[in-house]
Every structure is written in structure tokens, then in C-alpha cells.
């Protein structure tokens, strides 16, 4: 009966999302707010914790209402109407402190209704793990790269395994367990052949981390395999904590970290690098580098440097930095919070380098707090109809807030005209907010006359946007694009 009650309550809460049918005017004027949980799914919390949502809307947010439900159907509810600093995450957000000890240990469904002052409520949901009563147990398994033994070892500190592949074997670890890297040194990355070996489904993260006396620069994950392999551990929820992952360019081989649908991959306080002294050495190679494919992943307090790509395709990247990247820095990421990018030069190799690019139909994209220094590349390319489907693919209900990019140019004439490189808005935009942005040294082009990818707008607002001179004169003072509003913009 308890299980039925639990499922029924979830259906009722989600039903409001399914049953809400906005009017035609409601859709045209405001649509949904941009909103994301600032939480990594399935993270384990204990007792008092601050859970938050980052949200924006052209007309402002009225309030965020929370409901948390445990496996027995017991609930906690609260609401908040002011965005303040959450010291758990380091971000200004709509957060509430909950005492999770009032609920059962195990999975909790967290629901948030984000209500704008004028518009349609956005319904969010996420699963977290509660261990306030300490009933969710875990084990530590140990790996020693020289003294360990994958055959006779049992994973204890006295008899460790030698490889991560063995430690992550499907019949060894389970959800919540830790894999401890015992000493300073290089550890061979776990891998599996495509379609091979069994696969472990867990509902808590298995965490790979160094022993307490080591830091991330002392524990390095490498791949010495020169064949085409997929760097693909065999567990559904995997967390890398406080380690360096070195995707070094060796023997022209591919080293991909791939995930499956519904996998959860989390990098916390990690350093990810290709570790190449001369980035130009990548020119013309078939090397792919640290590309993360298929499933969005999570990054907190981490660094990506000296490689081809930064943190691309993330579901959430928070308090992290990208530097000395020859490819894209944050391409296609859904939620970027308080991040930086520095020392980017798009002429190092022939590559289409930019800080942030997206394409295809997109909804609920959020960049809140992004600072760029020493940037010689395209800052933004937003092209929702990249496949040339005018009027079909659209960027909707998205917000770009508190962004400052320090661009430079090698040619004085390019510096005078703000490029190339330029930033571009191409395609269809609907209910998009650009607020508190400094792009004063690079042209942003809204290509209304581009027949292949014409810029069209409906309820697009630029609020306190510092434009490059030419862009300001062309769009703000000159012929304002239809559907665009400029508020307090300047040059």
C-alpha cells in the first residue's frame, strides 16, 4: 500500500505539468522561465541540506515551490521567493534548507514548481539519495598500481587490486562504494570493449578517489592502450573525485570517454587534460581527445586545460574553468554556473573554436556567470536551425546572464571592427533573455538578411548589454530587429 501511495503522489505532482495547457496569448507573451536544479542527480545528502534552483524569466520569478517525497509517501514542502547565496554551491539561487532526517533513507523525489510573475510554471524533478539515518552502507576497495593483484587481491587495503578495471568489476563494487587509489602515480583507465562484459546498474555513485593524503596532481588516470578502445567503465553511476585524467596524445589513437543513455557521470574537483606541450601538434591528427558523447554529464569545481575540448555537452558545469583549448570550451552544455575560460587562440590549429556554441532545437539553456580573459575566438554562436530548417528549429525559454568576455585581436584592423572572429545569432529565438553582458570588444551579428539562417525573434530581450560600437549602432540605434527589446544597453 505504501508503494502505491508513493506512486500515486508522484503522479499527482507530475500531473499538473501534463494537464496544464497554456493559452495562445500566454505562449506568445512569456512562456516558461529558464530554470535548473543546482544539484547533481543521485547525490547522497545527510540531515540538514540546502537544495536550490537557479531560475530567470524576462518578467522575473514570483516563487519556487518545493515538494520532497520519500519511498513511503512522506513529504516535506517549502517555498522561496528571493534568490540568495547558497554556501553549499557558491551560487545565488532559490534555495531552501530541508531536514532530511524527517524522511526515510533511500531515494527521494524532489519536485520544484518555478512560477514566473507573468507566464507558465516550469515543473522540475530530480532524484537524490537520503542517508540521514546512515542506513545506506558502503565499502572501500583499494587499488595499488604496483603492489596490487587482480587475481589474488580482494580489494582490501592489505590485499588491493592492481587495476581500476578489476575494481569496477560487476561482481565487486555496488552503489555507494569507494574505490581508493592508494599511492601517488599513474593508474590505467578502466575500459571495456563495445558490447563486452556485464554491466552494473546502481542507484548511488561509485566514487573513484585518492587516499586522503594525496591530491589530484599526484593521482593520474592514463591510457597506454594504442588500439581503438572505449574508455567505458561498467557501472551506471560513476563519480571521479579529486583526480587528474590525462588524455595524452599518443600513437594517434582515440581515447574516448563514452556513456550510455541514462548513465550518470560526475567529475568533482578533477583536472582533465591532453597534457600536450605544443597544442599545434594536434593539427591534422585523427585524435579526438576528451570528447564526451551520447549522454550529458556533470562537472563541479573542476579544470579542463591544454587539450582539444573543454567541458562540452554537460548537463551541469559549476565553478569550473577551461583554458588553452583549441576546440570548443562549453559547447552544447545545458547549464553553466559561475565558470571561466582563458587563453583561447583559434589560430593554433584549423578548428572552429568558440566559447559556447549550440545548434538544433533547444529549450531551457542557462548560462549564469561566465568570465572570459585573453580570448581570440568566437565568443558565442547560437544557431538553433543549423540544419537550415527556417521556422522549425528554435532556441526557446533560455537565459544568458552575467557574462563578460575579454576579446583581443592580432590584427589592428580587426580590432577596430570587432572581428573576425565574430559572435553570431542565427535562426529562430523565442523568449530569450540576455542580461548583464559585456561583449564590448567583439561584434555580435544578428543576421536578419541571411537567407540560409535568418535571425528571427519573438520576445527576445537585451538588458544591460555592453555592445561593440558597430553592433550597438546597427541594432540598438539603427534598425532594431523585429521581436527584440533593448533595455539599458550601451557601447
Describe the structure.
- This protein has 491 residues and is mainly β.
- Among the domains are: 2-130, Immunoglobulins (Immunoglobulin-like, Sandwich), CATH 2.60.40.10; 352-491, no CATH class.
- It is 9% helix and 43% strand.
- The chain contains 5 helices and 36 strands.
- The chain has a 20-stranded parallel β-sheet that branches. A 5-stranded mixed β-sheet has the order 2-9-8-4-5, with helices on one face. Strands 1-3-7-6 form a 4-stranded antiparallel β-sheet, with no helix packed on it.
- The longest helix has 18 residues, at 2-19.
- The chain is globular.
Helical run tally: 5
Distance between the termini: 64 Å
Overall residue-averaged pLDDT value: 84
The helix/strand class is mainly beta
**Share in β-strands:** 35-45%
Shape: globular
Estimated helix fraction = under 10%
Strands, total number: 36
Low-pLDDT regions:
1-29, 249-256, 284-294
Global Rg: 24 Å
User: Biggest β-sheet: count, sense, barrel?
Assistant: 20 strands, parallel
Amino acid at each position: 500500500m505504501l508503494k502505491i501511495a508513493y506512486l500515486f503522489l508522484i503522479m499527482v505532482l507530475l500531473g499538473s505539468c501534463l494537464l496544464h495547457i497554456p493559452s495562445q496569448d500566454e505562449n506568445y507573451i512569456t512562456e516558461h522561465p529558464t530554470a535548473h536544479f543546482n544539484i547533481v542527480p543521485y547525490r547522497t545528502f545527510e540531515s540538514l541540506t540546502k537544495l536550490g534552483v537557479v531560475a530567470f524569466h524576462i518578467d522575473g520569478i514570483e516563487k519556487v515551490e518545493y515538494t520532497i517525497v520519500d519511498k513511503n509517501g512522506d513529504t516535506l514542502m517549502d517555498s522561496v521567493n528571493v534568490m540568495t547565496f547558497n554556501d553549499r554551491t557558491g551560487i545565488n539561487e532559490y534555495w531552501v534548507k530541508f531536514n532530511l532526517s524527517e524522511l526515510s533513507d533511500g531515494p527521494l523525489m524532489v519536485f520544484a514548481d518555478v512560477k514566473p510573475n507573468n507566464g507558465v510554471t516550469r515543473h522540475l524533478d530530480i532524484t537524490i539519495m537520503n542517508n540521514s539515518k546512515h542506513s545506506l552502507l558502503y565499502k572501500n576497495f583499494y587499488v595499488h598500481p604496483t603492489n596490487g593483484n587482480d587475481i589474488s587481491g580482494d580489494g582490501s587495503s592489505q590485499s588491493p587490486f592492481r587495476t581500476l578495471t578489476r575494481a569496477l568489476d560487476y561482481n565487486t563494487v555496488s552503489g555507494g562504494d569507494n574505490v581508493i587509489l592508494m599511492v601517488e602515480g599513474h593508474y590505467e583507465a578502466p575500459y571495456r570493449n563495445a558490447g563486452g562484459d556485464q554491466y552494473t546498474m546502481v542507484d548511488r555513485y561509485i566514487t573513484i578517489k585518492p587516499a586522503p593524503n594525496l591530491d589530484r596532481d599526484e593521482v593520474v588516470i592514463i591510457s597506454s592502450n594504442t588500439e581503438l578502445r572505449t574508455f567505458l567503465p561498467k557501472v551506471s553511476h560513476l563519480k571521479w573525485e579529486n583526480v587528474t585524467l590525462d588524455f595524452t596524445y599518443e600513437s594517434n589513437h582515440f581515447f574516448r570517454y563514452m556513456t550510455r543513455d541514462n548513465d550518470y557521470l560526475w567529475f568533482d574537483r578533477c583536472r582533465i587534460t591532453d597534457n600536450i606541450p605544443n597544442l599545434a601538434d594536434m593539427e591534422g591528427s585523427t585524435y579526438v581527445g576528451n570528447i564526451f558523447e551520447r549522454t550529458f554529464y556533470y562537472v563541479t569545481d573542476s579544470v579542463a586545460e591544454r587539450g582539444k575540448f573543454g567541458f562540452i555537452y554537460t548537463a551541469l558545469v559549476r565553478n569550473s574553468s577551461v583554458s588553452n583549448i583549441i576546440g570548443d570550451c562549453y559547447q552544447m552544455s545545458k547549464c553553466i554556473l559561475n565558470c571561466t575560460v582563458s587563453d583561447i587562440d583559434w589560430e593554433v590549429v584549423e578548428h572552429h573554436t568558440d566559447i559556447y556554441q549550440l545548434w538544433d532545437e533547444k529549450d531551457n539553456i542557462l548560462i549564469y556567470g561566465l568570465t572570459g580573459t585573453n580570448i581570440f575566438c568566437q565568443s558565442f554562436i547560437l544557431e538553433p536551425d543549423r540544419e537550415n530548417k527556417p521556422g522549425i528549429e528554435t532556441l526557446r525559454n533560455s537565459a544568458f546572464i552575467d557574462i563578460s568576455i575579454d576579446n583581443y585581436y592580432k590584427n589592428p584592423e580587426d580590432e577596430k571592427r570587432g572581428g573576425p572572429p565574430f559572435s553570431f545569432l542565427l535562426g529562430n529565438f523565442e523568449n530569450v533573455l540576455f542580461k548583464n553582458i559585456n561583449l564590448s570588444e567583439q561584434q555580435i551579428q544578428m543576421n536578419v538578411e541571411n537567407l540560409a539562417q535568418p535571425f528571427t525573434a519573438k520576445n527576445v530581450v537585451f538588458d544591460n548589454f555592453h555592445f561593440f560600437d558597430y553592433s550597438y549602432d546597427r541594432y540598438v540605434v539603427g534598425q532594431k530587429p523585429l521581436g527584440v527589446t533593448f533595455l539599458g544597453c550601451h557601447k
